[in-house]
Predict the 3D structure of the following.
Amino acid sequence: MQGVTIADHPLVQHKLTILRDKDTSTRSFRALLREISVLLCYEVTRDLPLEDVEIETPVARMSGKTIAGKKLVFAPILRAGMGLLDGMLELVPSARVAHIGLYRDPKTLKAVEYYFKAPADIADRLVVVIDPMLATGHTAVAAVDRLKEYGVKQIRFVCVVASPQGIDILRSHHPDVPVWAAAVDEGLDDHAYIVPGLGDAGDRIYGTK
């Protein structure tokens, strides 16, 4: 799929299989999600621009590389997106964080916003939107719409599991937003759950079902 990168590293796929298992405990589900988020973060930041800096090691002076430009922003879609945040902040501890509160109306399946908080200069930064699932795509589109209203021009979307329908919806509305995922599954069931998927990520993270 154009604009979609699948993180097919063996560690990602191994952890994803355990994550999907309905018998995986809440504690293990959280831990696995954090571990996968670190690996996905590694992939989505692979092409960040670098600049040369002069440093001095204990042995000699040298020219090294550091990430150029302003610090990036992680934007978890509440509530399930928070399950990916800690792992990504472990890898990029200086990143800023924006919070996007959205829920899916059970009747219309449309996204409804209830909270938004972001750094004042978010328009000048690369924003990585994070959510474990990309199902219908409506929530992802709403999140990206909101960020673009704030003037954000560089946006990437990271999820653990996506559906082909969700990718199509997101990419049709925002073809400039690339997607990173650990897997693209078969599709959606009658309740708009990803099949085979991993269930409701938020419920499994927080033990609410």
Q: What stands out?
A: The radius of gyration is 18 Å. The longest helix spans residues 26-44. The first strand starts at residue 4 and ends at 6. The helical segments are 10-20, 26-44, 82-91, 138-149, 164-173, 201-206.
